[in-house]
Specification:
The chain is mostly helical. It is built from 7 helices and 3 strands. Strands 1-2-3 form a 3-stranded antiparallel β-sheet. A hairpin with a 5-residue loop joins strand 2 and strand 3.
């Protein structure tokens, strides 16, 4: 008779995986929504977050963001004809090139808030957007 998997063990493994996913998402949202020039406690929290989510690494896993990071690091916006056939995702970054910057190896974009003050936000990779969206909406 073949060995059967203990359903309790499988549930425990699934629960651990789900908990790890939620911790990563929560950490990611804290990273993305943090303001620059934060207080000491927040800086310490961000240091802890970086151990859970290496945003620079996550950004570089995606081809579009790798290309955009390369533009910003070189300080050279490519010609429109070189990127126009690559799709809307990369076009967004091309149009907003002057609002992009690299800090601590992470791609940031300046975005105006409701008071028209430019805030610097971490560009979240496509692969993590669902996670960020879920966390932002569940925490309210």
């Amino acid at each position: 008779m073949p060995c059967q998997e203990d359903p309790g063990k499988k549930q425990t493994a699934n629960t651990r995986t789900e908990k790890k996913y939620q911790e990563k998402c929560t950490a990611l949202v804290r990273t993305i929504t943090s303001q620059p020039n934060s207080q000491t406690n927040e800086e310490q929290e961000l240091f802890a977050v970086e151990r859970l989510v290496n945003m620079a690494e996550e950004q570089r896993k995606e081809e579009i963001l790798r290309d955009v990071i390369s533009w910003v690091e070189r300080g050279n916006k490519p010609e429109w004809q070189d990127i126009s056939k690559q799709g809307q995702n990369i076009e967004h970054y091309w149009h907003n090139f002057d609002l992009l910057e690299i800090e601590n190896e992470k791609l940031l974009q300046k975005v105006p808030n409701e008071k028209h003050v430019l805030m610097r936000l971490i560009v979240d990779p496509e692969s993590l957007r669902k996670c960020v969206f879920e966390q932002l909406h569940s925490s309210q």
